[in-house]
Amino acid sequence: MARLIIRQEVIDIAHSYGVKVSFRKLKSEAGLACLRRELVILAKNADRETTLSTLMHEIGHIVAKREGKFKVYHSVGRVWTRKLVRKYVQTALRAELYVDRWAEREFKKLFPELKYERAYRTKEHRKWFRETQLKGML
User: Which residues lie below 8 Å from residue 49, measured CB to CB, with a gap of 6+?
Assistant: First the structure.
């Protein structure tokens, strides 16, 4: 029952930002954003704080794309030249940190009683990002 309440809460928040949401079984990530479809995909069995933190982070990517922030990082369907790959790698972490700070501010407005789960702020998170997210780009 509690899981259904959390799902409805997530759906309501996503819709307030004009974003669709889906729940799936994910291997290693807590969520991801499909920028072209403006869809956030969240892990099915995460706890409330993780789910809400991830939701806000992924919505942040969609909002950043809408606002034209970090265009190369948030591009969709682009033909990748060496120059664009270099620019992508150079801006990837900055884009993630920008989105995460935006998400934390929005999260605190909506859930002042909860703790936002930050991403990409520790050496371990940054190492994971480079090894998993940028691996194919380098």
Answer: 114, 115, 116, 117
